[in-house]
Design brief:
- By secondary structure, the chain is an alpha+beta fold.
- The strands form seven sheets. It has a six-stranded mixed sheet, with helices on both faces.
- α6 packs parallel to α7.
């Protein structure tokens, strides 16, 4: 009894010491906060009242807060009083804009996902494109919310974006008209396969009720006909609500399984999301399509189902946004969107691809391959952290030529089809024959030209020659180069005949029969979807990936 009493006493002493240390540390933290706020307040008051030029107290404070938050990560931002309405509009999914979702890759603002069918997508803006300027305002140093503030506005107004494509290092200016954007959770569904027993489901975001919408759709599909496989398309899905991602995972996993964890500095930010529903589709083969535009909640779903060996991932590595934000209300109708934790998949890996810790702060640095750590899935497959979600089966998007990129960004195909349909008095007109030749004539009428890196080099050479030489022979050689390049670009248009005819056909279908019909046609040419169907029809190959 004496020994037990001594042990109990020792335990209480140790517990008291630990709690005392914690209280001292907490007290010291609050003292430091109070001390630094007092110093900051003194400096702020002196500058606002005595500086040689009159300064706006509001702007001075806003710049101070922004400078402080820039040392953290790009997703932690102050939301001023006048910006609350914009946040509310964006959260409802209805606003005037051009249809782009942006995020950070290092210190660049890049396009995560152009929303299908809207101005940015029609113009040919692609995931990974770097946003350099908005209406002449440099994007360097802008927060995501500031980019949104500059791009949204009244429908019918225009916004000019300066975009750089990393693959070509080419910078292009896009003038886009804002339109009413109604964001849907499920944007398109279709039956595929020889017996129409495979369901294709395109999920564009994780908004309110997206989990319930997926559940109802799957149940209805199973009741209407046989359902032997699901293709869940998360390409260009920028994410959304974490709880909706968990709801969707829940449909395919038995109860009691941890599907995602959040890990933060404060105890209340650490948590595990566990599946609860009876798994109504636990035996349904699932394939997830991803690309570099799949981010956040998309990566949570893909990472969980990959770690649990419940789905095969097809496509490209995802964006790599594994940071969790929460909105903290502040005084005077302002708020702070604050990063409070990181996502961890069931195996314990992080999907975050940029490290914002250390001296770089808000700029961050890409996590090198040498620091990526291996983890094991439920069946023992090796997966890695630090670069988003890597696919089980790699499929890459085909790259367009310079001519094709220019045709997309200039919207000529859209306007050509629009002009042709306006001249036809028929509710359901057929695509005219020789449409390619007509389009080439249209381009000539529009004086269509596009620039290539070769044009830039020739122009630089011509400028240099003008400034440093009077040699007529060199000038003649440059003129010959220009003619040769012009002929080559004309030939590139002719070589793009298949691409142009397919693009015209899809645009024709879209304007005559609607976007859903266009999507059905597009699925037939989609390499991701063809690979998914092939794998679902070959169960041995499907299972061999999950159970090597």
């Amino acid at each position: 009894m004496k020994l037990r009493s001594k042990l109990l006493y020792a335990t209480l002493v140790v517990a008291f010491l630990f709690s005392s240390v914690a209280l001292v540390q907490t007290g010291d933290l609050y003292f430091q906060i109070k001390k630094q706020l007092t110093i900051f307040g003194d400096v702020y008051k002196e500058v606002a009242t005595l500086y040689v030029d009159e300064v706006s107290p509001e702007k001075l404070m806003k710049s101070s807060i922004d400078a402080m938050l820039q040392k953290l990560d790009p997703y932690t931002v102050f939301i001023a009083e006048g910006e609350q309405q914009d946040m509310e509009i964006l959260s409802t999914g209805s606003y005037g804009g051009v249809g782009i979702e942006v995020g950070f890759r290092g210190d660049d603002i890049v396009v995560i996902a152009p929303m299908e069918g809207y101005a940015a997508d029609r113009a040919g803006i692609r995931p990974g494109d770097i946003l350099k300027a908005i209406n002449g305002v440099s994007a360097e140093g802008l927060a995501i919310e500031e980019v949104q503030e500059l791009t949204i506005g009244d429908t019918g107004t225009t916004v000019k974006l300066l975009i750089q494509r990393p693959s070509t290092n080419r910078t292009t200016s896009y003038e886009l008209e804002r339109e009413r954007i109604e964001v849907k959770n499920i944007s398109f569904t279709e039956r595929l396969g020889e017996n129409n027993d495979l369901l294709y489901l395109q999920l564009s975001r994780f908004g309110q009720q997206s989990g319930e919408e997926v559940r109802e759709l799957l149940l209805n599909s199973r009741e209407e006909d046989h359902l032997n496989g699901l293709i869940l398309d998360l390409r260009n899905n920028p994410g959304g609500l974490l709880n909706e991602a968990v709801e969707i995972i829940d449909k395919f996993i038995e109860p009691g399984v941890t599907v995602v964890e959040t890990q933060g500095r404060m105890e209340e930010q650490n948590g595990a999301y566990v599946s609860e529903e009876p798994a109504i589709f636990d035996d349904l083969p699932v394939i997830i399509l991803m690309n570099r535009g799949s981010a956040s909640a998309s990566e949570v779903v893909a990472g969980a189902l990959q770690d649990l060996d419940r789905a095969v991932i097809i496509g490209e590595s995802s964006f790599g946004k594994g940071l969790v934000q929460t909105i903290r209300p502040l005084s005077y109708n302002t708020s702070l969107k604050l990063t409070v934790s990181k996502y961890l998949t069931p195996s314990g890996r992080s999907i975050q691809s940029v490290d914002y810790a250390g001296e770089n702060g808000g700029i961050g640095s890409q996590i090198p391959d040498s620091l990526r750590r291996p983890f094991k899935t439920k069946n023992g497959r090796t997966v890695f952290d630090g670069q988003g979600i890597d696919p089980d089966v790699v499929v890459n998007d085909s790259l367009e030529s310079e001519a094709e990129i220019s045709l997309l960004q200039s919207n000529h195909i859209f306007f050509f089809v629009n002009e042709k349909l306006a001249a036809i008095d028929d509710e359901s007109p057929e695509l005219p024959p020789n449409i390619f030749d007509q389009f080439v004539d249209y381009l000539n009428e529009q004086n269509f030209e596009y620039s290539t890196p070769a044009d830039e080099y020739i122009n630089e050479l011509e400028t240099y020659v003008e400034q440093s030489s009077n040699n007529d022979r060199i000038r003649e050689d440059i003129s010959n180069l220009k003619r040769s390049l012009s002929q080559q670009k004309q030939q590139e248009i002719l070589s793009s005949k298949n691409f142009i005819e397919n693009s015209i056909e899809k645009e024709w279908i879209s304007q005559v029969h609607g976007r859903d019909e266009r999507n059905r046609i597009s699925l037939q040419e989609d390499g991701y979807v063809r690979k998914a169907v092939e794998l679902l029809l070959d169960n041995d190959s499907y299972q061999s990936i999950l159970k090597p």
